Each structure stands twice: as C-alpha cells, then as structure tokens.
Amino acid sequence: MKIKNLPKKLILRDVEILDPLKEKVFKGNVLLFNGKIAEVGKFDQPADAKFIDCEGLILTHGFCDLHVHFREPGDEDKETLKSGSMAALSGGFTRVCTMPNTNPPIDSPESVRFIIEKSTDYPIHIHPIGAVTKGQKGKEISEMGLMKQAGAIAFSDDGLPIQNGFVMRKALEYSKMLNVPVINHAEDDCLRCDGVMNEGMVSNRLGLPGNPSISESTMVFRDLKLADMAGAKLHVPHVSTAASVEHIKEIKKTNDKITAEVTPHHLFFNDEDLLNYNTNLKVAPPIRNDLSRKALIKGVKQGVIDCIATDHAPHSLHEKQTTFDCASFGMIGLSSCFGVVKRLLVDEEGLSLVNLIKLLTTAPRKIMGFNQDLLKVGTEAELVLFNAVEKWKFSERHVFSKSQNSPFYGQELIGKVKYTISKGKIAEIL
User: Fold this and answer.
1) Looking at the annotation, which residues are catalytic?
2) Across 206-250, where does the E strand assignment appear?
3) Upstream peptide bond of 104 is cis (omega within 30 degrees of 0)
C-alpha cells in the first residue's frame, strides 16, 4: 500500500460513479481541490490538475465500520490506532467506530479525549464508543453525558454483555436524552456458559462445549423490549441467529429506532467450517449453522439488517496458536471485508451492488449521525475506488493489521479496493 498526500488538484477521470444516497450510477469525472469535492460529472478539466485514469473502476463513498477493536490503550502489541488505520485504509474504510473494551476501558471523558486526540493525524476518522458502565463491570452507569460531550458517539460494554436488565434500562433511558445508540453484546452469560462454538451436531462431534443460539436471541428480545419501552436507540451488533433476525424484524414494524448489523464472517461461514479446529474461526457470538447463516442473508436482503460491520478483533499469535477451547475469541476483518461481501451477497446471492454499497456507507453513517452526502461539492473527500469484478486470493500480504488472525486466507474473493481517499491522503492498495 502506498500512501501520499493528495495533490492540490486531482481529477479522477472516466470513472463509474455510484452514489448510494441517491441510488444512481453514472459515468463522469471527479475533481478534488485541496482535499474536497470540487466538481462531479462533466466539467472543463483544469490543465494544471493531476489525474488518475479510472477506466474500469467504480467510485463511491468511503466505507464506514461501526464495530472495530483497535486495542489501544493497553494491548498495543495486537493493534494500535495507527496500525488499525492502515488496516482500514486497505479495505476502503475511511471512518470507524472503536469499541471501549481496551485496558483500561474507555469509560471516562478523559479516555474518550485520548482516542480523539491520539488519532487526529491518522488518515481515517476514528470515533470512540464509550463504555456503558464503569470499568465495564455491568453495575454502575458511566458518565455518559460527559463522555458524549467529549466525543463519544455511542455506548457499549462490548465483549461483556450487560446482564442486569435494570442497568440496561437505565442506560437506554440516559442514551435517549443524549440521542445516541446503545450497543449491547447480546449473549446471556448463564445460557452461553463456557461454550466456545455453536451448540449442535458439530460441537458434539468435535467434543467442544456449545453456545446455544438461544443465548443470543433471548438477550436480543430483552434489549428490544427495553429499548421500545424507553423510546431509545438500540443497535444490535453482530447478529448471528435466525431467531434474532425474526425478533428484530417484528419490532421494526412499529419502531424505527432499532438497527442491526451483521459481520462478513457470520454471512460467509457455518459451524461445519470449524471441523479442522481453526481457531481463527473462534468468535463471539459463534459461527452458527447454515440455517442461521441463510437467515442472516435473507435478513440483509429484506432490510431487517441495516449494515455490515467487521467486528475487527486483532489477537497475538500465542492467543490463537493454542487449543480451540483456550484460544481467544475474535478475528480481523477490515482488509478482506469488501471482497467477501461482494462475492457472497452480489455475485452469489443476487443483491444489487448499489444495495451492498449502502450497507457499507450511508446506512452505518445514518445510524451514527454522520454526514451521508459525500459527493456534495465542498465536502471533505472520503472516497473509495474499486474494481467490482476482479478476482483475487486473500493472503497475509493483504493484511496491514499488527495481527494475522484471519480465517479468509486462501479464499478467492471478488471485488478489489484500489484506492482509498481520506483526510487529505490517497492510498493505493496494491
């Protein structure tokens, strides 16, 4: 990957422009002036401008990921804000939201400001999500108002589900006053117990403790009902079960404050892919059976699931190169995301390319209240250029994270990010 400062004037010439907000595709040019959108479509091209020949490429909004773990502060050996930015750029992401389960957690205004100030000079926009409870202990509500003032854009105890219904209710009531979403990792600790993979025939065959799908769906149902009662925004992360999709579908009939995400890995894999004990497939919630996988795809097509998020979760080698039951939960996913979902949802499942791009751009931005019109003249350039039909095999050389824990190595993907433009920089992804 080569990263350079944008020239004063840059023309992206003869490019297919996909506008996900207006849901239209057209051929034209894009002029960037001092890092901002200056002209879109057909115009007199300045003779002193640099240009990139974009024939065969599609230009659209930079991708936005609502769910990443960059591990700083505390576990910089796995990922830092800087290395996470590089991983994001390589995958076409110009904006990400970082989860608060760092060491120490992001549970105070000071820790929120640390993330914002530290990431100022990095080439993507990084938005901290604050912890719902102090120390992520699930007992005492954090200083949510002060954290919002400091720059927190949502609240979550991600990785540590809020088990106490009263605490979750209070969090939702406070979040309503702040007009930001609460994101709860939906798993009932008592039901998931010591499960390390989906409970079913495959877990029995492998001799591994199972995590039943009901551990998620019951928590999703509880959270939906509490959010409905409070009139608050609830975002359901990494949906993995068919029952959860149905619960979300039902409440969305009468409540427009509910949103949900799905990960590429829950769409792509099923629990039979774990038969070789690949620890990179050990995630929370676990990879489910194929019935649930197909239900997630259907949920995306029907609009029940609003966006795609990677749940990018770096881990060191020793945390993954161990027995399956002892391995850490999580996988990286920023660099592989687009190629995975383009192949699966568009080429195999028939979703339109426009709808896929909406799942990666306007939909997550709408959930978090970010600007959705990134092709408007005068807007700071947050753009991605990709080849929609290029086939490529994902390998370690495509990874820019400090960690290597991906299950997608060797997979043939379709759709390749070529350039990412963000914060006055242009990254060429080789």
Assistant:
1) 311
2) 210-211, 234-236
3) yes
What residue ranges of the chain have pLDDT lower than 50? none
Q: List CB contacts of 115: < 8 A, sequence separation 6 or more.
A: 72, 81, 98, 106, 126, 128, 151
**Sign of the C-alpha dihedral, residues 185, 187, 192, 198?**
negative
Question: For 69, phi and psi rounded to 5 degrees?
Answer: -120, 110
What would the pLDDT profile of 6-35 be if each residue is shown by its tens digit? 999 999 999 999 999 999 999 999 999 999
H-run or E-run covering 178: helix 165-178
Cα–Cα distance between 32 and 50 in angstroms, integer?
A: 10
Q: Which pLDDT does position 7 carry in this prediction? A: 97
Peptide bond into 123 cis (omega under 30): no
Say how far apart CA 52 and CA 179 lie, in whole Å: 41
Q: Which residue has the tokens 């792509």?
A: 268
Count Cβ atoms within 10 A of the Cβ of residue 179 and give its class: 0-12 exposed, 13-18 middle, 19 or more buried. Answer: exposed
DSSP annotation of 279 reads G
**Per-domain residue ranges for the chain?**
2-59+377-390+411-428, 62-368
CA–CA separation, 259 and 262 (whole Å): 11
Paired tokens of 156? 């979550």
The fold adopted by the segment(s) 2-59+377-390+411-428 is: Urease, subunit C; domain 1 (2.30.40)
CATH number assigned to the domain covering 62-368: 3.20.20.140
**DSSP helix/strand/coil, 12:** strand
Identify the burial level of 377 via C-beta atoms within 10 angstroms of its C-beta, where 0-12 means exposed, 13-18 middle and 19 or more buried.
exposed
Contact between 281 and 331 (Cβ < 8 Å):
yes
| pTM of the predicted structure, to 2 decimals | 0.97
Query: What is d(CA 249, CA 272) in angstroms, rounded to the nearest whole number?
Result: 27
- Nearest CA to 324 out of 287, 290, 289, 274 is that of 274
Which residues, 6 or more positions from 190, have their beta carbon under 8 angstroms from its beta carbon? Answer: none
- Overall size of the chain counted in residues: 430
Report pLDDT digits (tens) over 143-170.
999 999 999 999 999 989 999 999 999 9
